[in-house]
Design goal:
It contains eight helices and no strands. The chain is an all-alpha fold and 194 residues long. The chain has one domain: Up-down Bundle (Rhomboid-like fold). The protein starts with 14 loop residues before the first helix and ends with a helix.
């Protein structure tokens, strides 16, 4: 008789995505313990540029780890934990970290430059992963129909909702979606050109 498959042991199958999710949960818990003072200070970015502040540079990227509340965090990470492991397996952990950092940085800089509101949360990265996943089987000279449909369903909706008065940053969603599209196309073209 073969070796039993039970008990099953957990596998840290997606190190970048799992570490990102755990870090966001730890920060949310720490923010709750601090009475809501931690996230606004270190994990949110604000309009304008404060070049003299070291925290300003950190927050340009760290805003992706901060969340308004547990519901906000859960909404973002239900998408990230669903799509992220497949994307990490497809593109690799190192390239995924770079794509996430670039997307967070670009979103933070553009938010500081052009918007009059603060920004926090991983929704831009969630949209990056959604669009990036639609390029999973991209071939040179083709545009995946899944990509076209995702753009229509997600980004068009975000563009329309950008005019709504709410606490959701459609701007971050759009920048994340554009980033994911560019990364997917460039990575797919590079693979196909080999």
């Amino acid at each position: 008789m073969g070796k039993s498959r039970f008990p099953l042991k957990p596998s840290y199958n997606s190190p970048v995505i799992l570490t990102f999710a755990l870090a966001a949960c730890v920060i949310m818990a720490a923010d709750n313990l601090s009475g809501g003072r931690l996230t606004p200070r270190f994990f949110a970015t604000y309009p304008g540029f404060d070049f003299a502040s070291p925290a300003f540079y950190f927050r340009l990227v760290s805003h992706a780890l901060g969340h308004k509340n547990w519901a906000h965090l859960t909404a973002n990470f239900s998408v990230i934990l669903l799509v992220g492991p497949m994307v990490e397996e497809k593109y690799g952990s190192g390239p995924l970290i770079k794509m996430m950092l670039i997307t967070a940085l670009v979103t933070g800089i553009l938010n500081a430059a052009f918007l009059s509101t603060g920004l926090l949360g991983a929704s831009g990265l969630a949209f990056m992963l959604i669009l990036l996943s639609s390029f999973a089987n991209h071939r040179e000279g083709e545009i995946p129909l899944t990509f076209v449909l995702v753009v229509i369903l997600f980004l068009a909706k975000e563009a329309v909702q950008a005019f709504a008065q709410d606490d959701i940053s459609q701007f971050a969603h759009i920048i994340g979606g554009i980033s994911g599209s560019l990364f997917g196309y460039l990575k797919g073209s590079r693979r196909a050109g080999k």
